[in-house]
Records
---
Amino acid sequence: MKANTPCMTNEPTPAIESPSFDRDDASAPRLLNMLANRRSFALKDITTDPVDRALITQLLEAANWAPSHGKTEPWRFVVYSGVARQQLSDAFGAAFQVLNPAQPAGSVGELAQSQRVWQAPVWIALGMQPSQKMPEWEDLIAFGSAVQNMHLMASALGLASKWTSGAVVLHPSVVTAVGFAPDTKLYGFFYVGHPAIAWPTGERRPIADKVRWVDDSTDAK
Ligand SMILES: Cc1cc2nc3c(=O)[nH]c(=O)nc-3n(C[C@H](O)[C@H](O)[C@H](O)COP(=O)(O)O)c2cc1C
C-alpha cells in the first residue's frame, strides 16, 4: 500500500447489535458521561508510544457511522504513523517557511512545526469531499459529525487525541503532501496517542444559557 493510501482497511464492518432502548438501564447516563469526558489533549500531554492499528480502525469505524443527508458520506481520511510521519514533518516545516519568509531556514518556529509530528504516534488527515449532490454546508456538518464520532471513540478507548487546525496544517503545501482527491478539502488533522497525564476534566457554560423553551410552561398571557 502506498503511504498516502487512505487506511480504510478491507476488514469487514463489525456486526452492530440491536439497541435495547431501556431507559431504566445505565446506557443513557453512561453515554452522557462518555460525551462529557471526550477530551482534547495537548501534544505535550501524549506519550510517544505507538497505538495499535486495531484501535485506530475502531476510530475510523466510529467515524463512518456519522449521519449524512442523501447518504453522501463525505468524510475522507489518511492515516500516518511511524516513519511515514516524516512526510508531514516535511510538509509542516515547508508550510511554516512559506508563511514566514522573514524567518531563516531552520528557525525555532520551523523546527517546532516539523518536530510536532513525532510527539503523537498517529496523525489522521481530515478531508471532506463535497458530494455536489447536497449543499456543501450539509456535507461539512456530516464530516464534522464523523470527526466527533472518531473523537468519542478515541476517548472511550482511553486514547488521548485532538483535532488540530491552523494556518500551517491547512496550507496548500500540506494539502498537496496529503494527496486527497483534488476536490477534497483538508480541514486539519486528528492526532492520537496514549495519555501522559491524568484524564483532564472538561467544562462548559450551562446549556440553559443557550436554549429558549417555547412550550406550555411559557407564561401564556
Ligand atoms: C474544528 C475544530 C478545530 C480545532 N482546532 C484546534 C487547534 O488548532 N488547536 C487547538 O489547540 N485546539 C483545537 N481544537 C480543539 C478545541 O480547542 C477543543 O475542542 C476545546 O478546547 C474544548 O476542549 P475539549 O475538546 O476537551 O472539550 C479544535 C476543535 C475543533 C472542533
---
Amino acid sequence: MEKVVCTFCGSVCDDVEFDPNTFSARKFCALGKSKFSKKERIKSPMINGKEVSYEEAIEKAVEILVNSKRPLLYGWASTVNEAIRAGVILAEKVGGVYDQCSSVCHGPGTLALIEEGIPGGTLGTIKNRADVVIFWGCNPMEAHPRHATRYSVMAKGFLIKDRKDRKVIVVDVRETRSAKLADIFVQVKPGYDYAVFSALRMIVKGEDIDIDEVGGVSRDKLYEVAEIMMNAKYGAILYGLGLTQSRGRDRNVENAIKLVQQLNRKTRWIIWPMRGHYNVVGAGEVPTWEVGYQYAIDFSRGYPRFSPSEFSAVEVLKRRDCDSALIVASDPVAHFPKKAVEHLKRIPVIQIDPFPNMTTLVADVVIPSAITGIEAEGTAYRMDGIPLRVKKIIDTEYWSDEKILTEMLKIIDKR
Ligand code: SF4
C-alpha cells in the first residue's frame, strides 16, 4: 500500500492508501474508491472517431483553436494547477474565453467575496478549534463523505476532544443525510436563506424579531441558533450550492459574511465554501495569479475581461458566441442546459479527459489523459486553499493534461 492523495472531491484526503498492483484502496470513501479503481478509459486519441497518434490529435486541436474567432476553454476543476496554468496561457494566446466549473456552482459566492472579503480559516482550524459548526445549504455526507470524520462533525483536535465538545447545526430546505448527524436541524423555506441571515443578524445586533417566523423558521428557533452562535468560542459556517444556486445567490453569501462579521465583534467565527471537485479552487486561483480573475474571462480583445453574466460558459454557448470549444476534465454535455448543449453539438469540440463521458459523444477531437493522483502528479488546492502535492504512482503511456496542453502551446508558439 502506498500513501496517496485522493483526487475526487474538495476534501482532497491525503491519508488514503492505494496498491497500484492490485488496485486495492484503503480509507477511501465510496466516491474516492470509484476513481481509484479500474474504470473504462478513452483508449486512444481520436479525430472524428478514427484512432490517431497524440501528435496528430494535438495538431488538429491547435488548428481548430487558432482558426476560431472565439474558442471557449472550459472545465479545469479536476486537473492540477500546472495544467490549468497552461490552459489560461492557451486561452490568452488564442483569444478565447476561459471558464471553469465554478460558474455553475460556487461562482456567485466568489462575487460576494469580491464585495465583502472573507473571514476564513482552514479545515485544520475547524478540526482543532470549532466548537460550533453550521452546514448551510450543503450535504457533506453525500458530497464529501469523509469531511465529517476528518475535519468537522466527529473530528477530534487540540481543543475538541470529543463529539460532545462540538455542536453541529444543519440548515437546509430538506432533511438530508447530513441533517441526521446534527444536534439541531433548521428547515428553511426554499429561497428564504437571505431572510433568515437577516433575522440572525438582527438578533446578534441586539434587535428584536416581532413576528412568529422568518423563512419558515420559528422565532424561538432563530433565537436558539443566534444564542449558540454568540456563545461559541470558535464557530464555522460551511456553505454549499443551497446558497449560491438558489434565490439570492451571491447576495445570500454576502449576507452570511455580514452575519459572520457581526459575530466577530463578540467572538470568533469563520465562513467558507464547501468546494466540490478536488481542484476547483485551483481552477479559480491559477487564473487569478495569471490575469486577475477567477472565471468567465474573455481574451478576445487581447486583454482579460471579467463578466460572469456574459462570459460564463453557459451564457457564451446559449448566445452562440463561441465557434469552438476545448473541454478539459469536465462533462458539460451531461450538466449544462439543453440550449447550451445544442450549440456544443454545432461547433468543433476538443475533449481532454481520462474517461469517456457524455461530452465524448459530441467531441470531434478526443485526447485521453493520465489520471492525476495515480498516473500524473502536480499541485492541487484543497477546498480551504491549502496546496497539496498530488502523486504519480503508476507509469503509463497516457500523456498528462499538463503535457498535452504544453505541447499545444509549443505548436502555437512556432506558428
Ligand atoms: S472524502 Fe473526497 S477526497 Fe476524501 S476519500 Fe472521499 S472522495 Fe476522496
